[in-house]
Write a structure and sequence with these properties.
This protein is of the alpha/beta class. It contains 5 helices and 9 strands; from the N terminus they run βββααβαβαββββα. The longest helix is centred in the last third of the chain and has 15 residues, at 142-156. The protein starts with 12 loop residues before the first strand and ends in a 6-residue tail after the last helix.
Length: 162
């Protein structure tokens, strides 16, 4: 079962497509993060989803949200995938132990050997403020991301005193 909204996002350290190690906790206190779990690089649905995020990267950048993709592919595969499609955001390899981070977030599909399509929007304190989870084979819509980012903003906007 996927982690619930309001839960503390589990910390992790994974290599990106360049072999640099990235820790979720490095963003705490500074920037919100959108973790985008996707099944496999180069599959048609994953490619189209990530290309749509690439084409709409401003909605993340304008809100100072770090966009990070995660799959069970190797870092070499992710580098080729990013280069071929012009992704200028980090892709992390949940390669070994196979799917360990996906399992922590409750989105690993054991019978398939990869993560479901799941996005977690995490605030600067490390809490999950929104999630988008679709059925296997069903792409997430970019409008769902806009709604998720709006929910994050609503959680972080100070309420004016009456």
């Amino acid at each position: 079962m996927a982690l619930e909204i309001g839960s503390l996002a589990p910390d992790f350290e994974l290599p990106n497509q360049f072999g640099e190690h990235v820790r979720l906790s490095d963003h705490r206190g500074s920037r919100p993060v959108a973790l985008v779990f996707f099944p496999l690089a180069f599959s048609s649905t994953c490619t189209s989803e990530l290309c749509e995020l690439r084409d709409n990267i401003a909605m993340f950048q304008d809100n100072r949200i770090e966009l990070i993709g995660i799959s069970v592919d190797s870092k070499a595969t992710l580098r080729s995938f990013a280069d071929q499609n012009g992704y200028d955001f980090e892709l992390l390899a949940d390669f070994w132990p196979h799917g360990a981070v996906s399992k922590e977030y409750g989105v690993f599909l054991e019978h398939k050997g990869f993560a479901n399509r799941a996005t977690f929007v995490i605030d600067v304190q490390g809490r999950i403020r929104a999630s988008i989870i679709s059925e296997p084979g069903i792409a997430r819509d970019v409008t769902e991301y806009r709604s998720a980012l709006d929910r994050l903003a609503a959680c972080t906007t100070p309420v004016a005193a009456a």
